[in-house]
Amino acid sequence: MGRDGASDAPSIVRSAIRERGLLSYAEFMELALYDPEAGYYARGARQSGSTGDFVTSVDIGPLFGEMLAVQFAEMWRRLGEPAVLDLVEAGASDGRLARDVLDAASSDPPFYAALRLHLVERSPAARAVERDTLAPHAARLASVGPTLPDRFEGILVANELLDALPVHVVVMRESGLREVFVDLEGDRLVEREAQPSTPRLEAYFAGRGPLQPGWRTEVNLAAVDWVRAAASRLARGFMLLVDYGHRNHTVDARVHSTGTLRSYRRHRVHATGEGRAPWLTAPGACDMTTGVDFAAICAAAEGEGLTVLGLPDQMHFLLGLGIAERVARPTGHPPHDLARRLALKTLTLPDGFGASHKVLVLSRHAGAPDLSGLRFASRPGPAPDPRRLEVD
What we know:
Layout: H1 9-20, E1 23-24, H2 25-34, H3 63-78, E2 85-90, H4 96-105, H5 109-114, E3 115-120, H6 124-133, E4 141-145, E5 152-159, E6 168-173, E7 176-185, E8 188-194, H7 200-204, E9 216-219, H8 221-233, E10 234-246, H9 249-255, E11 262-265, E12 268-271, H10 278-281, E13 287-289, E14 292-293, H11 294-303, E15 307-310, H12 314-320, H13 323-328, H14 334-348, H15 353-356, E16 357-364
Parallel strand pairs: 2-3, 2-5, 3-4, 5-10, 10-14
Antiparallel strand pairs: 1-7, 6-7, 6-9, 7-8, 10-16, 11-12, 11-13, 15-16
Helix pairs in contact: 3-4, 8-11
């Protein structure tokens, strides 16, 4: 049972509003997504894939993890091939990405032997299956837990973590910035505007192009705080953050003037402004995400002493690592080769993951090495075209 006898997310949210009053969207999302008893991510070890609510690069097959292993091995060598390299995955879900990375890394024995894997995942259901998922690599698994290691040297990777962190929702009115809260009208969850809950929301827009009256957007303070905390724990090495979002908040605010808040349920997408939001009618039953403001993330990282090495889209990152050439090499198993060619297209084509997802690469005390994944970061034109691999 939940608080005050509540056993499901809607009841827990309603109880919280009755106890506290208006909930910011950040508080609402914390309950709807992460409540340990009834939150969306507490429902099971895995919500993605063909039988879930949405698809990630990991669901396409092992190719994404294989290419990350190529980049991680190069980073290890740029760090001087230390005998021990912490590989920390934040938002590790059920451990499939880490497994795919280690499966590929095992073909490079010196690199593989140096790896010390740490899986960070808030969902108890997901953590419960991680050791089984990583069973073939048990010797490399150093820790499983809900929080980042206090201190580590090596590589921190997070794939589609920041977009699912709780956000504040704001709207600009003629009288100034207002925050959008979740309230009760009878037993019905509704939105209500009020004064911002924290001065950080107005400060967030300092130095940026102002929101126009009527524009609505999200402020992901949790993502900013997470990056700062992660940076403070990285003694030396790299951070690689993969997510969908926008590079420049000011430019994209004009495009996303109704916000980027989305819900996913059974592969159906619902956005703000498309009728009554399903996250208000059935909180805890659907995923909720927002586009990441990479300008804010970069500023937070630099404020903690990290160096921004590059921010390519996923297509140019993977092509820089040689994914097209790797997939073009036949393995002698035609069905396997066809699956890899299909995965290549899904991961890289501009009308899908290739353009929507960005790869932010950061470093601390590692200089500014030329990394293969950043080969096309600043000049997307010359990148190879993945369409050259025809699929019959």
